[in-house]
Amino acid sequence: MLQLSNGTYSIKVDPNHGGKITSLIYLPKGIELLVPPPIVEATTTSDERWPLRFSLADSYGWDEMFPTIDADENISLPWGPVDFPDHGDLWSLPWVCSQDAQSITGEVMGTSFPYRFKRIMALENGKILVRYSITNLTSSAISVVWAAHMLFSLVDGMYLELPDEIDSVINAFDGGIFGRYGRLVRSGDMSFHRHASFLADSGLCGKWYTSHKLHEGRVTLISPSQGIATTVSFPTEQVPYLGIWITEGGWNGQRAIGVEPANAAMDSPSKARRFGMEHILPPHAAQSWSMELSIAPIGI
Questions:
Q1: Residue among 19, 196, 7, 212 at smallest CA distance from 107
Q2: What architecture (CATH level 2) is domain 2-297?
Q3: Dihedral sign computed on CA atoms, order 264, 268, 273, 274
Q4: Tens digit of pLDDT for each residue in 114-149?
Q5: 13: buried, middle or exposed (CB in 10 Å: 19+, 13-18, 0-12)?
Q6: How many CB atoms lie within 10 A of CB 287?
Q7: Which of 25, 98, 136, 206 has its Cα between 20 and 30 A from that of 247?
């Protein structure tokens, strides 16, 4: 386990568990922001064959999702159909990580197709700066989904502050809070307010994406009871969508808000293509972007 710390943040990264960020503590208030490991036995073992399924035992902390979230079959590769596994490759692979005084660098080679993924997490100027790059090592253009899978613990009174341009969202979870998969939930609909306000013990869950590419990449999670506001900022040129996963005890009893900036929407390449929201990784190309996370006290 690697640890990065200054007077404001403490971060732990597990190289052997997909580079998972297992802990993010806001030190001035001593608050752990991320969902902790559940008290359950892992459903996978070291001799189980890849690909693995993302289980309750894996659902905590912060993972990187690539090249999909939902399991998917990509038929665009010249060597034939390729199955993209549940929640992608990266969460289940060991990463090669290194550390210096201010940053942790992690790299991993893909398994669904040949690619290199790199993430550098640094503490700079009171913020957590995360730099990413993905290099396609094939001669084919490939439809992919990347999303940061940040699972924040849900506590009473939490809500989101979002850019004013978000006046509709598209449902990415069949049933639950927003009804049928693919439903456009507009600002005048009765359920629209639930995209940004939460009920910790409703027993429901849901998932939405912004219904169009964003001009402003920002989401702030406000927690009045803890007296903090957590802001995630991302560049919409490379990361034009935002997904929010909500489980108010509705998924395995877990209470979490998943904040997921993404380069494509709807949780898999084939679904993104169907809704005109896909992202293409060009042949022999490297794509890079960065994301910032900051936490500030609010209230008295």
A1: 19
A2: Distorted Sandwich (2.70)
A3: negative
A4: 999 999 999 998 999 999 999 999 999 999 999 999
A5: buried
A6: 17
A7: 25
DSSP states along 232-254? EE--TTT--EEEEEEEEEEETTE
113, 122, 66, 120: which is closest to 92 by C-alpha? Answer: 66
How many residues in total does the chain contain? 300
Amino acid code (one letter) for 40 = V
Extract the tokens encoding 34: 């991320």
Residues 6+ apart with CB under 8 A from 8: 26, 27, 28, 123, 126, 295
In the chain, how long is the greatest CA-to-CA distance?
60
Can you tell me which residue has the tokens 């201010």? 102
Tokens of 261: 């900036």
Identify the segments of the chain with pLDDT beneath 50.
44-47
Beta bridge partners of 266: none
Q: Quote the tokens at residue 150.
A: 């940040």
Buried/exposed 120-144: b ≥16 CB within 10 Å, e otherwise: bbbbeeebbbbebebbbebeeebbb
